[in-house]
Amino acid sequence: MFSGSISHFCTLSTHFTATVLDLSDNQLTGELPDCWIFTGFLELLNLANNKFSGEIPPSLGSLFRLKMLHLRNNNLIGELPSSLKNCRELRMLDVGGNKLTGTIPQWIGTDVANLKVLSLRFNKFHGNIHPRICHLADIQILDFSRNNISGKIPDCFNNFTSLVQKGNSTESTRFYLYPISGNHFERVPYIDTYADNVLVHWKGRESEYRKLGILKGIDLSSNKLVGTIPHHFSDMRGLVFLNLSRNHLTGSIISSIGQMEMLEWLDLSRNELSGKIPNSLAELHFLSVLDLSYNNLTGMIPLGTQLQSFHPSTYAGNSQLCGLPLAKCPSDHGHGGKGNNIEEEEDDEFISRDFYICMVFGFITGFWAVLVTLFLKHSW
């Protein structure tokens, strides 16, 4: 519950040698001091969950060793300073939950291309997502949700090598202390509890993860994105969650979505998607959270263990969608996810009605034919 300003931070000696500075989860206020040039040994700076205001100071760009920068959930304004492109060792940049403006800087995809986590969520960023963002080969969490981002989704997300690969494809970041022993620095391993400390909006709630492990996801929800979902999304076989809800996306759900076999959470709700739900969606055996509501989807929900187990609200707002768990599809409509199943249903319906009628009529006719013959043929 520490409070007050940290402006006196500028009076620190130039011999400041800490590698980790964590002031998170307090009640600190005021503007961030613009004198970080004296803290060149910092590898992690965590000022999250306070009440800091003003702009992000440009001198943060002088922290050449910085690997993690947490500024989330404050009242920071302005744009991301271009000086941050000098922090080429950044692995995690989390500025979510502020009032930052401007466009997403192109230097993020070029100068700080080693990012594992990039969270710009819940700000006021606008403009398009530049294709240079696709240079982030090691990215595991990409969160641009709840902004004013417009335009199309770049058709190059399959360049995210970490998301294409299944499993934990990136190493955790370790930090070191540099305690002064006389005039010498002693390099001592520091516990890596900060290695993957990140806030993720996961399955409807915010959760803080100390270890990312195989958790990989993209959240572009609550923006103004248009166009179709790129077909190359299906190449991201390591993706665990995908949230594209509350945009203006059109077209159909990609037919090869079943290739994203690690998906546990898929939210495409409140867009303008049309067409049928692809059969391959029923092949996602890890899928535990699904929301396709309020689109223009049509036809029959594909048959499978997963899709019929979800609550009907999963498919709400699609008036021409039918099949379990919604109302049964009309038998004379050629809708549906699997044509063979429809033909089998029609065949079964034929056997259970016309076939048995003919069978009974044939039995009666045959029986009386034998009986009449017995009456006429006295020898029999």
Automatic annotation (TrEMBL):
Signal peptide: none annotated. Gene3D superfamilies: Ribonuclease Inhibitor. It is found in: Cell membrane. SUPFAM superfamilies: L domain-like. InterPro entries: Leu-rich_rpt, LRR_dom_sf, RLP23-like. Pfam families: LRR_1, LRR_8. The keyword Repeat applies. GO terms for cellular component: plasma membrane. Keywords: Cell membrane, Glycoprotein, Leucine-rich repeat, Membrane, Repeat, Signal, Transmembrane, Transmembrane helix. It is a single-pass type I membrane protein. The chain crosses the membrane at residues 354-376. Its main location: membrane. The keyword Ribonucleoprotein does not apply. Belongs to the RLP family. This is Uncharacterized protein.
